[in-house]
Structure prediction request, 67 residues.
Amino acid sequence: MISSARPDQNGVFVVRGLPKGDYNVATLLDPEPNEWLQPELLSTLNVSARLQIRGDERIRVDVRLAK
Prediction:
């Protein structure tokens, strides 16, 4: 599953509703519309964090935006 989020006024990104599974977190600064859905781009992103969702839980991941 691929999901995206934009920061709030405090620079916090929130993604809700992800199903159980393993995820890679990556950042992308100023993407073109729907650019983040392109397999060519996804294969070049640096993974900032990896996480596993096992159930109905909250997970916090701190990452820095790639420039």
